[in-house]
Amino acid sequence: MRTPDDRWAELCAAALAGELSPAETVEFDELRRDPRRADEYEDLRGITARLRQGDLAWTPPRDDSDLEARIAASIARAEGETAEGPRVVEPVRRPRRPWLVPTVAAACLLGGLVIGANGAALVQPSVPSGPPGTLGAVEQLAVTDDDAGVDVDAQVVAHTWGTEAYLEATGLNVGATYELVFVGADGTEFPAGEVLGSEVPIVCRMNAAVPRSETVRLELRDTQRSVVAHADLPAV
Questions:
Q1: Alpha-carbon distance 32 to 25, whole Å?
Q2: Which residues contact residue 10 at a Cβ distance below 8 angstroms, ignoring those fewer than 6 apart?
Q3: Which residue of 30, 157, 178, 211 could cross-link 164, Cys pair, CB 3.0 to 4.6 Å?
Q4: Angle CA(122)–CA(124)–CA(125) in degrees, nearest 5?
């Protein structure tokens, strides 16, 4: 029977891969209001970032399909080579690191591996990477904060259905409305949604129906259309 946690796991995986639909984005943001889930997602994002930077790696497990036969053969050789009779081989016990299992499991999930019930690694599509405009790849932007006290970080992701922005902002006026806009090379504007200023950091995902190749700039504006933060997008 499926549980709410099953759905949350699906949405997390899609979010980390940059493949949430607009409807799923709304559902995901609603579930992320739960502080426990918000913290969990941030932890997973951190692991994803490390995987992209290359300081985590997955070593394929050794094939153990003939493990029993190899052990039996080893024991038989030992018995034949030892005059005193069969040797009792004590297993080597290594201290277990309590963090190892969850960390590796998360790394495998985010790196595109799913471990089956029998321990086999099933290869799944990995998180996309590549030059600007690569579908599903996260592009970090260099954001300029135009309004004193405002601190904005942003990333964009190209999709077949448009361009998505990951926005993190602090210092916005509490209760004030801000609009995120993508600007095309010819000056055409493509609204990506609105957010409300809050006392706590704002973390959201916003979408615009415009191809990544046609966007050159991202702007966060207040109700007077004054730009409070902006970023020039890398050329595609």
A1: 10
A2: none
A3: 157
A4: 160
